[in-house]
Each structure stands twice: as C-alpha cells, then as structure tokens.
Amino acid sequence: MAFRLFSREEKQASPPERKASATGRVVALASGAGRAVWSSRDTASLTRGGFVGNPVGFRCVKLIAEAGAAVPLICEDRDRRYDIHPVLDLLRRPNPGQGRAELFEALFGQMLLSGNGYVEAAGLGAQGLPEELHILRSDRMSIVPGADGWPIAYDYSVGGRKHRFDMTGSPDPICHVKSFHPQDDHYGLSPMQAAAVALDVHNSASAWSKALLDNAARPSGAIVYKGVDGQGVLSPEQYDRLVGEIEMNHQGARNAGRPMLLEGGLDWKPMGFSPSDMEFHETKLSAAREVALAFGVPPMLLGIPGDATYANYAEAHRAFYRLTVLPLATRVAASVAWWLSEHLGAEFELRPDPDRIPALAEERDQQWARIGAATFLTDAEKRALLGLPPLAEA
C-alpha cells in the first residue's frame, strides 16, 4: 500500500495544475480568515469624528459623492452606444428605496469614508441581471481570503449575526470597489484615514473655541489677594463672598462695563490670549485646508480663505471635476460594468460623459471647435477623437 503513492495510477488521478501568483499563499496566511483589517483608526471612529462631527469632512464627502452621483453615464460596447439597455433600466431604479443618484451617492460615500464600496446583487431579473442592487456598509463587511490570496467569501456582520456571501461561483454576488492601499492586500485606503491628524487638529480647535465662548470668550483677568505679611490666602467665608459678588454684580450682559470696587488687599490683573500666542485661527484654517487637500476638494469651493491656487471659482470647479470627481466616477463605473457584464453574459462599458457636465462646458466647446476646424481629419477620425461611436453604414 505504501508504494501505491508513487504509482502511475495515482499520478493520473491528481488534479491538474492551476496557474496562480506565487505570492498568493503568503498573502492568504498573512491576512487571516474572516478578519476585518483597518488602519490605525477604525472606520466607525473616523466617520463619527471626521464626517458626523466635522463640517469640513462632511462637506468634502457630500460634495464629491453628490457630484459623482450626478455625472451622466454612457453605456456602450465595441460597436455602438446604447440609449436603451437593460443595465440602464436596472440603474435607473436599482431597488424600491433608491434611485440611481441615491445608489451611487451611497457607494461614493462609503468609498470616501472607508476606502471600500460593496454592491450586492439581489434576486434574478431579466437577461441574467440582478433584480435589485443594494449598497452594503463597509464597516460591517470583512473579507475571507482563500488559499491563493483571493477572496472566497465576504462576511456581513450585524448585531452578532453574520451572513456569508460565497464568491467561489459565477457570477459574483458582491462587487467590491476599493481605493489603492500600499500596505493592504484586500482593503482600500480612504481619504479620511489620510486626513485623520488634520481632522483631530480641526476638532480640537473647535472644542477650544467652544470652551472660550463658554467662558466669556477669554479670561478677562485675575483678582490677586495680597494679605498681611505676604499671606495670600483667603478664608472660606471671604472666598465665598468674593465669588458671590462677582457673579451678582460683574457677570452677564446686564453688568457689561460695570466698574469693580476692590478692598482689603485685592488687586486686579487684566490678562487675555492674543492671537499670536497660539495662532489659533490660522491653525484651524490650515487644518481645514489639509482635510480638503486629502479629499481633493479645492478649499475655495468650501469657503476656506487664504487659498490662491485657482484664479476664480469656475477654474476651481473645473479642477474639482477633472482631478477628483471624474477619476472616481470612471473607476467605479468601470468596476460596476465589468461585474454586471458577468451577470449579463455580454461585455459592455459604463463611463462618465464629460460632454454633459455643465462645469466642463467651456472645455468641451474649445475641444469641439479645435477638432471641427482640423481639415486634415476625416469625419470618422473626428468622431473617434471626441469619443463618439462610428456612424452606422447605410
């Protein structure tokens, strides 16, 4: 029996060799099955402090997510562009509770907050497409890597209960769109994580400002007691009387500007915090600019002063779409299209249509005029340069 291990019969029964990355097994062992891996700060804490509790982070996420969700999409294959397509019908109303804009806004928002976006295919609709599409919360999702390092399942955990999405079959029930992370094989890096320090500075500056407002904006001064023989200690009765007189006669709007009469060795020492002591205001604005920089939003669009990168608001708006919104929308649309192509059984593409974005209208007019005036180009070449499909032959 021992020598049958090396027999020809056993060799023929062995499974065929599969091609895979040589580093896959190492990645799988290092990742750990079913374990959600985050950076030094978890998504829930960053969302509370950087989105729910910070106006700059909130506005950055909302600005990018809403702009990306409003970008018109083109559905096409290698031969033609479609105005009517089953995928467009699915995206128009992906589920009973959301439309196209709400679905993509939630997907972009999850990517900006955590670096990961998850789309679930629910049910079986026409032509093999999902009946519904749903966005899953990224803080509840964890990847289960297989022996080759690729995900074999996704675990979605809510309140101690877990649902597993099997990724070993075809088509995949989950579309995972992630941002680039140089130190993680399965999860993306969010702008919120890169801006975590700046968010802490901005939140601390806001808390410091709130504390100053609660204390009449600044400590206006100190009452110094010079007792007999240098003993500067008040008795409990003297201290209570002094505090009571100050609260009654010298605090509040009714007593603003009222002179203070001191007796018995009491001396008034005015003091306050000058702007140069901590450069409080500039520190807060600098932190806000760093947060905007991490998200790719021009500070001018957020009303943050002191930024002269762009000549005017329109130029900043164009840069926002070109450098932030369109790259994100292009990556997300391509991932969703490839995933839905597997369901449909036919390859197609989804990509943003920059010609229908009002902020880029001036660039579009210049491009069309420049290409239209090129007499050395044929009509087919001009259409190709403008991203238009070829005309159908008569």
UniProtKB/TrEMBL annotation:
Biased composition (Basic and acidic residues): 1-20
Region Disordered, residue ranges: 1-21
Domain of life: Bacteria
InterPro entries tied to this protein: Phage/GTA_portal, Portal_HK97
Lineage: Bacteria, Pseudomonadati, Pseudomonadota, Alphaproteobacteria, Rhodobacterales
Species of origin: Paracoccus subflavus
Pfam families xrefs: Phage_portal (PF04860)
Protein's name in the database: Phage portal protein
